[in-house]
Amino acid sequence: MRADGTPHEVVVVGAGVAGLVAALRLAKGGRRVRVLAKGVGATHLTGATVDVLGYSPERVGSPAAALPGFVAAHPDHPYARIGIGVVDEALSWLKGHLADPRYVGDTGRNFRLPTAVGVPKPSAVVPQTMAAGDVVDGKSFAIVGLPALKDFYADLVAGNLALAGDGIEARAVPVGLDLDGRVDVTPPAYARRFADPDFRAELAFSLRGRLGADEVVGVPAVLGLAGAEAVWEELEGRLERPVFEIPTLPPSVPGLRLFDALMGALRRAGGRVVMGAPVVGAEREGNLVRGLYTEAANGRRYYPASHVVLASGGWAAGGIEMDGSWAVRETVLDLPVCGVPAGARFLPGYLDHQPLAGAGVAVDRSLRPVDGEGDVVLANVRVAGATLAGAEPWKEKSGDGISVSTGYHAAVSILAEEG
Amino acid sequence: MKSIETEVLVVGGGATGVGVARDAALRGFDTVLVERKDLAEGTTGRYHGLLHSGGRYAVKDPQAARECAAENVVLRRIAADTIEDTGGLFVTTPWDDPEFGDRFVRGCAENGVPVEEIEVADALRREPALHPKLRRAFLVADASMDSWKLVWACARSAHRHGARILTYRAVTEVLRDGDAVAGVVVVDPRTGDELAVHARLTVNATGAWAGRLTVMAGCREVEVVPGKGIMIAMNHRIVNTVVNRCTMPSDGDILVPIRTVSVMGTTDSPVRDPDELEITQAEVDHMLEEGEKLVPGFRSYRALRVWAGARPLFGARPPGDGVTGPRAPGGDTRDITRAHALIDHAERDGVGGFVTITGGKATTFRLMAEETVDLACRKLDGAEAALRPCRTATELLPDAENGYYSVRSRLAAREENLLDDQLVCECELVTRGTLEAALERRPTANIDDVRRALRLGMGPCQGGFCTYRAAGILHCRQQLDQAAANAALLGFLQERWKGVAPILYGDQLRQARLDDWLYQGLLDVEHLPA
Questions:
Q1: Contact at CB, A394 and B424, closer than 8 angstroms
Q2: Residue A155: closest C-alpha in chain B
Q3: Contacts of A350 in chain B (CB under 8 A)
Q4: A205 interface with B at CB cutoff 8 Å
Q5: How far apart are CA A302 and CA A299, in angstroms?
């Protein structure tokens, strides 16, 4: 407790990218911080690339060049709320805290990295292990397929990659990398096996003599959990060619690595994390939250908080939900949700812009939640990540860009308030 | 143009069509069936899965009740493995008139529908999720039936007896030879290949689409009203017994437990085009509200999917029009009889070689086929010849000897090869081996065909993982070129979306956004090359 009786601790709700970035930035800024999370965040679903702005709606070559126009056209977008200067600052800061693997790139130019269907997806900041996949005209790709991995189809990747630009060649190279005779192997199970030097050598050996001189080698993103950067470097050395990873369906190995990296950095910086502890209520006083209640196997617990960062996710993570009578709510603090369409919530085309998609919590410039009139609802709460209104992350290819920059901004705004 | 010849040509690959094809083949006729899409793609594959006891029609539609009661017994014997013996309840909720129960029991007794009134407490012990203030409860022989399995079993049986089943063959022209229909020309919509099928007798088994074919044949259009019914699959076995409201048939009054889900049905409204079945928010809301009356808290269960089917309702018609079967008043489609109609166009329109079988229910499909092939015998063998005996009421369908389906059996089957095969669809336990075997049998299958055959993508995640896997497997088996693989993937996502969009709330909304995350955020499918 401080002299005035308020607690020191900042409580972050949610252990996804936004929550962990906010917590790490706060801890690095000298604040006591505690993360309360229902479970691991959605990191495990992502390819762990930081996509800042990929489509608007045409493909974006340089997010830095496109963002001024984008925020002018979308004044309620999270990027517009925090200001685009924050995005670069947040990304540079994040890169400084990720080592295994390192992250490369910036908002000056989007990489175009093949997805598991072979579409080049625009991403600004990416793991070093993926960067060589950048799709440019004239490039030749060899895509490695693992037979027991059902969440990656090398033929499908190669077939579409070959159509992705002028003079691009792409082909699938299946390898019979056996894993104890198992026929159904998850990406993390493959990744764990890459800790074994013999297994790494076996992959390289099975590709020897099967690769063209100019080919870059795409592999499903299973090249190890801890120590992935070393595994990747070793494979590049053995194959004497650039090697890149392609994210698979979840559970995503690069997502697990990103989660581990952020959690490790946070713990080293003194942050605390309570997993399996859904927040079930809040103690309020006026327009302040004094603390949060969790309920877990060991019962109900109370965590006093000087500030709260709400990073509980959007529709997919359960941070915002709609019940069977079509009523929408923010699930942790019952904040006002804006952007719920009065008419059709969804349009008939799967790839249409869905009216409900942009619904979320509206915020002011320091990410404090506001009501329909724009008045701050809770003055010591910041909202970050997919809970925010105004974005269509999957259409824009902006998900982790929003999570990183708003998580960072939430933390900086709290630190600034403390002076 | 290539051409083939046959004695009996069946147009339409729903339960009625394959039923006619099987019956005709069993009686020794050379038989061909053509279907514009996949088997059971139309009404048969879009119903709630109820094997009627006849109780539903006991008061309102006695003939339909009698037919259902008789066919219920037959199908339980010949198609046991497509049926789960759930039993059925008719319950009087606080919103229903208890007096109706007396009329119900009387109607059942008059029409041969076995029924027994039981204590409300016993009904609630059996189905604890039902409304605690039920007033009366009656036990009947309803069951749930897997219409895809049924249709495929009939098709396999027909094939074994020499019938040729041709899917993805849409009729473009009805061939005439003077006053008679002489077959049809079909086109494969995927390849554009045309085929002429010459036949001595053409059977129009196109159900709700029957009017179109009669016009193409140069006959007066048969008056089939497509009656739209919507159904909602809830992701739970909310009940393990088929439950009906004990009232006159109305919207949202049946809950059918089938496989891992419960299906709420249904509505009934006339539409003009059976291919355009729009589902409105108001209809969904109405069904959920009615669900609350049977099962309090219904809206808080996870709704998986909503879909609509088009019943073929044979409308009001003048006497002496060559039709055998009951008469019915016009107006509200719910007042149209559920009994079927068999039309000899020689009598009705002076056009020989052509009959239409329409109306009816999935439960009565076999009887409809029997009557149709009886007529075929008289037309092809001559009215004086001895009728070739129908064997479909006694000859078991393939796999029927396995006995009734049980919801537990799919887990047992999976246990057997747990370590030997990749699980492609975790929700419905479809393995790569099963998928590849299905593709082996039908090299031209698309993902939606695979879904109907294996239930791929029909579980809680609605294709979240298996759509990608199925596209990858189809593609690497060289069955699909790049453009076709991409189209198959996008087409399946669209097909799944169509059925979830109107009922997205709660966990299913969360699931849908998760699927978007995978397909749009992670894979970027919207930028697949066309």
A1: no
A2: B476
A3: 490, 493-494, 496-497
A4: no
A5: 10
Type of residue numbered A133 = G
Chain A residue closest in CA terms to B287: A324
- Are the beta carbons of A156 and B300 separated by less than 8 Å? no
Q: Do A182 and B524 touch (CB under 8 A)?
A: no
Q: Per residue of chain A (419 residues), give pLDDT as tens.
A: 455 555 579 999 999 999 999 999 999 999 999 999 999 888 999 999 999 999 999 999 999 999 999 999 999 999 999 999 999 999 999 999 999 999 999 999 999 999 999 999 999 999 999 999 999 999 999 999 998 999 999 999 999 999 999 999 999 999 988 888 899 999 999 999 999 999 999 999 999 899 999 999 999 999 999 999 999 999 999 999 999 999 999 999 999 999 999 999 999 999 999 999 999 999 999 999 999 999 988 899 999 999 999 999 999 999 999 998 899 999 999 999 999 999 889 999 999 999 998 999 999 999 999 999 999 999 999 999 999 999 999 999 999 999 999 999 999 999 998 65
Asked if B485 reaches chain A (Cβ–Cβ under 8 Å), the answer is yes
- Here the tokens at position A53 are 């702005």
How far apart are the C-alpha atoms of B122 and A182, rounded to whole Å?
A: 49
Give the integer Cα–Cα distance in Å for B330 and A262. 69
Helix (H) or strand (E) holding A114: strand A111-114
pLDDT in tens, B36-94: 999 999 999 999 999 999 999 999 999 999 999 999 999 999 999 999 999 999 999 99
CB atoms within 10 A of CB A97: 18
**pLDDT of B409:** 81
Q: Which residues pair with B183 in a beta bridge?
A: B175, B198
Phi, psi angles (nearest 5°) of residue B280: -100, 160
A183 CB within 8 Å of a chain B CB: yes
Question: Do B419 and A183 lie within an 8 Å CB cutoff?
Answer: yes
Contacts with B489 from chain A: Cβ below 8 Å: 117
CB contact under 8 A, B489 and A45: no
Window 290-349 of B, Cβ < 8 Å to A: 298-301, 303
Structure tokens at A389: 């209104």
Model pTM score: 0.92
Q: What is the ipTM of this complex?
A: 0.96
CB A319 within 8 A of CB A312: yes
Which residues of chain B from 252 to 291 reach within 8 Å of chain A, CB to CB? 288
Nearest to A249 among B288, B468, B485 (CB): B468
CB proximity under 8 Å: A 50-89 to B:
59
Q: Is the peptide bond before B62 cis (omega within 30 degrees of 0)?
A: no
pLDDT higher than threshold 80 for residue B405: yes
DSSP assigned state of B322: S
Give the residue on B whose Cα is nearest the Cα of A53: B521
Residues with Cβ < 8 Å from A25, sequence gap 6 or more? A93, A407, A408, A411, A412, A415
Q: Which of A34, A244, A159, A173 is nearest to B471 (CA)?
A: A159
**Element (DSSP H or E) covering residue A327:** none
Task: Please name the residues between 378 and 437 in chain B that touch chain A, using a CB distance below 8 Å.
Answer: 419-424, 432
Q: Which of A156, A252, A346 to mutate to test the interface with B (most CBs of B within 10 A)?
A: A156
Q: Cβ–Cβ of A155/B476 closer than 8 Å? A: yes
| Nearest residue of chain B to residue A247 (CA atoms) | B522
φ, ψ (nearest 5 deg) of residue A346? -135, 150
pLDDT at B327: 38
Residue B492: which residues within 8 A CB-CB, separation 6 or more?
Answer: B446, B447, B448, B451, B457, B463, B467, B470, B471
Q: Do A116 and B523 touch (CB under 8 A)?
A: yes
Unique residue bearing structure tokens 């309102």:
B60
Residue B83, classed as helix, strand or coil, is strand
